[in-house]
Each structure stands twice: as C-alpha cells, then as structure tokens.
C-alpha cells in the first residue's frame, strides 16, 4: 500500500522514515494511480494543510484511510486534520500520533495498513 505524506516541520517526515514502506511526499504536481493511506499534520487551529487539501481535491478518490500528527497541547484540536479529512472523504482514521511518533506508533501504523491491504484482497476475491 502506498503511503502519501505531507510534512512541514519534519515530524511527519521523521515518522515516515521509520516505516520502511513505499512512501511519497506531496508536491504540487504529484499524481498517483493507486490506493493510498495519507499521513499529514494538523495546522492552524485544527485544519488540514493547504497542500494536503489541494492534493486531495484531485487524488482523494484513491484515499483509503488517514493518519494525522499533532501536539497534545492543543487538547481537543489534537490531530484534528484527520477528523476533517475522514469526514469529507468518508474514510477511517487509522490513528493519530504526537510529533514524530513513537516506536509503538510505528508498529500500530504498520498493523493498521496491513489490515487494509488484507481487507482489500478479501473483498476482491
């Protein structure tokens, strides 16, 4: 499963580097042709980054699930970008992680993505 990510301060990128999975960073001209899981950050007062929103406007039809980083200091706004994206694109939130995530977060992420891959194989059989 392809992992598409957006990173501003480097926290998401550090998380991605721990995965050892097929990953691609969002750029203005990124186009993909396969299902993916999105990992992004939360900005402002709980919004998804503009680059993420722009990407989803053209590539959202392939989105399978969303993950967001955040900072728990924001309380109820922690990782809120995932909530907005999940609602808009009708996909599950796999998880949220703080800053660049822990090893436990990485393990959970890999398990969740593996489950999506398994379910897609079962559904197509």
UniProtKB/TrEMBL annotation:
<protein>
    <recommendedName>
        <fullName>Protein NrdI</fullName>
    </recommendedName>
</protein>
<comment type="similarity">
    <text>Belongs to the NrdI family.</text>
</comment>
<comment type="function">
    <text>Probably involved in ribonucleotide reductase function.</text>
</comment>
<dbReference type="InterPro" id="IPR020852">
    <property type="entry name" value="RNR_Ib_NrdI_bac"/>
</dbReference>
<dbReference type="InterPro" id="IPR004465">
    <property type="entry name" value="RNR_NrdI"/>
</dbReference>
<dbReference type="Pfam" id="PF07972">
    <property type="entry name" value="Flavodoxin_NdrI"/>
</dbReference>
<dbReference type="InterPro" id="IPR029039">
    <property type="entry name" value="Flavoprotein-like_sf"/>
</dbReference>
<dbReference type="GO" id="GO:0010181">
    <property type="term" value="F:FMN binding"/>
</dbReference>
């Amino acid at each position: 499963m392809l992992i598409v990510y957006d990173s501003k301060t480097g926290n998401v990128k550090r998380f991605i580097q721990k995965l050892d999975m097929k990953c691609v960073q969002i750029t203005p001209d990124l186009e993909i042709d396969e299902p993916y899981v999105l990992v992004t950050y939360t900005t402002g007062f709980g919004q998804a980054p503009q680059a993420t929103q722009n990407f989803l406007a053209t590539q959202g039809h392939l989105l399978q699930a969303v993950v967001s980083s955040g900072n728990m200091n924001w309380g109820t706004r922690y990782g809120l970008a995932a909530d907005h994206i999940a609602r808009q694109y009708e996909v599950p939130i796999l998880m949220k992680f703080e800053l660049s995530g822990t090893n436990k977060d990485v393990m959970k992420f890999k398990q969740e993505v593996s489950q999506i891959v398994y379910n897609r194989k079962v559904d197509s059989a």
